[in-house]
Design a protein that fits this description.
This protein is α/β, with parallel strands linked by helices. The chain has three domains: 250 residues, TIM Barrel (Alpha-Beta Barrel); 86 residues, M1 Pyruvate Kinase, Domain 3, CATH 2.40.33.10; 125 residues, 3-Layer(aba) Sandwich (Pyruvate Kinase, Chain: A, domain 1), CATH 3.40.1380.20. The protein contains 17 helices and 22 strands. Strands 1-2-3-13-14-15-16-17 form an eight-stranded parallel β-barrel, surrounded by eight helices. Strands 4-12-8-9-10-6-7 form a seven-stranded mixed sheet, with helices on one face. A hairpin with an 8-residue loop joins strand 21 and strand 22. The radius of gyration is 24 Å and the shape is elongated.
């Protein structure tokens, strides 16, 4: 294969990021390259499906692409979490009739139209009369009549065909199970060993669920809490404080809540994450019809556009790229929607409807000043020098009107901020002086297409250089024609 011409791989002409799921439809190295060229900024490895060797091959390919395209790419390893499932049925399925009674019990014998095994002893005894049990993504709905230590008797409110191992949701109770199963622990160890940048923790219910994952991560990678349980919604501020980022996982969230509750809740979660300067991903069924069709529905286009208008850091494709028939087209469409929204003359005002006043710190005040200067003076980019990525997150929180060039000596930081709104990360040697900062900022801006002769740049850094948390310096510089000629025009 001919080596790509890096000079033709321009910075993304949008600030929101695209996260695409790797699967059978996209695992081939050539398809991964095509998805990246089409607009993917980060890849999701879904640990619920596929073998470790398949995931290892995909991760290795993505890391080769980083070298090939000279651009950091984030990898999010998404853990399956404690998914509740029913047992098996005689003949593989049964029909539950509306208004009939149905029992979940601990008997491992195959089930029928009156009962089935529920191999989750932690559920028995904690449910109360009137609480709901939802099976197969809510297609079958039952309400508890009586719950004891060995069985749960229910009334069938919405019947239908129930088959082996279908998922069960319990929206009205906090289930006393850990967020990490034995499988999750093995998958987490694999993800850390293979250098995943983000870990997605599924079915978070309480802040304590994050603690065990943190311990097992051992300081490697960033932790993304997936908000898909009502319990997590009720304790959102505490969970956000402990997580590095969040995902609005609308699949199970839409099962456990009434459908009309999900859109305002999505906005609430996006706003809460933005207030703390933590990346927020909107996920699930964004372009669902493109699993089998080459074009999306108008409603799906509006759904993606609304997430962009809300100021989400990233929008995610799931089965569309993992198992769909049109993975490249799905990425292309999502990229086009995001670009069009961000070109809208009302976009900047919409994305700043959320007031994000700076915290009383020098770093926050300077980050806020970057936005104000970029709104007042023609600025081509904000160059941010950072070791941990915290300064970049502060700037992104303000949603400035110009792109952010993140310069960092840390490969881990560069990959992690690939999910951050408006950030274009470059790994480069650390700076040691003010003069070096100015020279390097200009050089990198020219090299990566963020300026031309006469362009103004904002440089944001901390003195002493190389000291985490010391952001205290803001400088506006102008690129000269001599510098442009020196760096190849």
């Amino acid at each position: 294969m001919a080596k790509p011409d890096h000079s033709k791989l321009e910075p993304r002409a949008r600030k929101v990021k695209i996260l695409a799921t790797v699967g059978p439809a996209s695992r081939d190295p050539e398809m991964l390259r095509r998805l990246f060229r089409a607009g993917v900024d980060a890849f999701r490895v879904n640990m619920s499906h596929g073998a470790h060797e398949d995931h290892a091959a995909a991760i290795a390919c993505i890391r080769e692409m980083e070298k090939e395209f000279a651009r950091p790419i984030a990898i999010l390893a998404d853990l399956q979490g404690p998914k509740l499932r029913v047992g098996a049925f005689r003949g593989g399925k049964a029909v539950l009739r509306h208004s009939s009674h149905f029992t979940f019990d601990a008997n491992p014998e195959p089930g029928d139209e009156s009962r089935v095994c529920l191999p989750h002893p932690e559920l028995f005894g904690i449910l109360d009369k009137g609480q709901r049990l939802l099976v197969d993504d809510g297609k079958i709905r039952l309400r508890v009549i009586r719950a004891g230590p060995d069985e749960i008797l229910c009334s069938v409110e919405v019947g239908g065909v129930i088959s082996d191992r279908k998922g069960v949701n319990v929206p009205d109770a906090e289930i006393p199970i850990p967020a990490l199963t034995d499988k999750d622990r093995r998958d987490l160890a694999f993800a850390i060993a293979h250098g995943a940048d983000w870990i997605g923790l599924s079915f978070v219910q309480r802040p304590e669920d994050l603690a065990e994952a943190r311990r097992l991560m051992g300081g490697h990678g960033a932790l993304c809490a997936k908000i898909e349980k009502p319990g997590a919604v009720n304790r959102l501020p505490e969970i956000l404080e402990l997580a590095d980022g969040v995902m609005v996982a609308r699949g199970d969230l839409g099962v456990e809540l009434n459908p009309e509750e999900v859109p305002p809740l999505q906005k609430r979660i996006v706003n809460a994450a933005r207030m703390l300067g933590k990346p927020v991903i909107v996920a699930t069924q964004m372009l669902e019809s493109m699993i089998s069709a080459p074009t999306p529905t108008r409603a799906e286009v509006s759904d993606v556009a609304n997430a962009v208008y809300d100021g989400a850091d990233a929008v995610m494709l799931s089965a569309e790229t993992a198992a769909g028939e049109w993975p490249e087209e799905a990425v292309t469409i999502m990229d086009r929607i995001a670009r069009q929204v961000e070109r809208d003359e009302g976009y900047r005002a919409r994305v700043r409807l959320l007031d994000t006043p700076p915290d009383p710190t020098t770093a926050d005040a300077l980050s806020h000043a970057c936005m104000t200067i970029a709104d007042t003076v023609p600025i081509s980019a904000i160059t941010v020098f950072t070791g941990s990525g915290s300064t970049a997150r502060r700037v992104a929180r303000e949603r400035p009107g110009v792109p952010m060039l993140v310069l960092t000596p840390s490969v881990r930081t560069a990959r992690r901020v690939a999910l951050l709104w408006g950030a274009h990360a470059v790994t480069t040697r650390d700076i040691g002086s003010f003069e070096e900062m100015i020279a390097k900022g200009k050089r990198m801006a020219l090299r990566h297409g963020f300026g031309q002769a006469g362009s103004k740049l904002i440089a944001l850094a901390g003195v002493p250089f190389g000291t985490p948390g010391s952001t205290n310096l803001l400088h506006v510089v102008t690129l000269s024609g001599d510098e442009l000629e020196k760096h190849g025009g």
